Fold each of these.
Amino acid sequence: MQYIARRTGNAVGLTVVGIAVVLLSALYIDLPQTSEFFGRHVGINKGMDLGGGARILLCAANTAHPSSSEMDIARNVINARVAGGLGIAEPQVSRVGDKCVSAELPGVSN
């Protein structure tokens, strides 16, 4: 019985040490002057609500009647160009209604 108690005590001790290490690491990362942790960038990427940006609404002409698949292709092309070409982190590109595509670009200004 003493062996089981000692083994359980060691497991609890290791768990407490593990929790303390994670807590101290999180507190260190949260400090304002910390920009890297083990060689990795730990900055915050601000989205549209905090960092601002541009919201663009692209619509097909009134005389055009694009199909659903054509609008999906347009959305995918816009998403690929914004994410790859402009290098914007986490752009939000979505369909709006039958004829429009909305693109939200955080950190972009006119």
Amino acid sequence: MHENAEVSGKLWFVARGVQRLVEWSGERRVAWNCLECTRIGNPDRKATPHQVRCYLFAVGMREGATTAAFTVGESNGEKQVEVLGENRTIGSRDGLFSDQFGPWDAHLYRVPVEGAR
């Protein structure tokens, strides 16, 4: 919980902040990127290529249905993106894939990356 009562328990602030960034950029820039956490608790160790994993969490931040397109860099050819917890996969080509979102839907993807098992 946040120590400030005006913020505490209001996780929607994060989504609203990202939405404001998208509006500010005119949808021309990445508003949310990635979080690298392989060195948490061990600053001397770097992940090997076989330990690298890519997970993408996305939320349709609107009341209506929408389609989102994603680009994951440095991925070549055709691959299958796993939608975790939904028993389905999505085809990707050269790191690009898209998915459908209902109102306020959230999806978690496991995206294949070069060198990972």
Amino acid sequence: MRLPTNHLIQRGPFTHIEQIREAAQQNGETWFDADTMKTHGSIVYPEVYGGYWFVSSERYRGEKRRHYHARQVNAYGTVLFAGGTTKHSSKALAIKAAKRAAGVTP
């Protein structure tokens, strides 16, 4: 159950994906839950860029290849979807996109 806005625990900026997972769990987010990750065939990579960007990959049902995404979270560990996410053909391209979005020089 997601906490009411006035009860959310602020944790960011983050330096490692486990900090994001912990903040998300404490604030009732389900994006990183095992069932959600399994449903989407998700893998989350440990590096965090600029405190709020990370890379995930998904293998959608019926597809053989993975899709890689640069994802943004807020200080509460909520994965933001404003504007959608671009599918990248490789982890390297998604990392490059995450670094660029975070203002981190490659």
Amino acid sequence: MKRLLVACSLPALIAVTPAVEASQWLAIRGVVSSCLQTRNKASCTRALLVAESLQQKAAESNNYRCQSQLLGVQADVIMVQLKAGRGEKALASLADADQNCKGL
């Protein structure tokens, strides 16, 4: 039941998250890596919100490859939150997004 509450409150949190600047790509890498490696709740929440902002920016820029990979990163973060992370595969997904989201 607690997990459902987190999922239901996500849209409200996203609405108050500021737009992500291109220079913040380095920051998301650090936050997502921290989430995937430490499973820290605060890091994972922040990673999910920042990844959402970036994937929306990718969609607006018609960078669908980047957008798709960021959706995958978000899925990896959610799996960590559900205690079912993908380990090294999740880090590989982040590296792929890093390659295709440069200049976002």
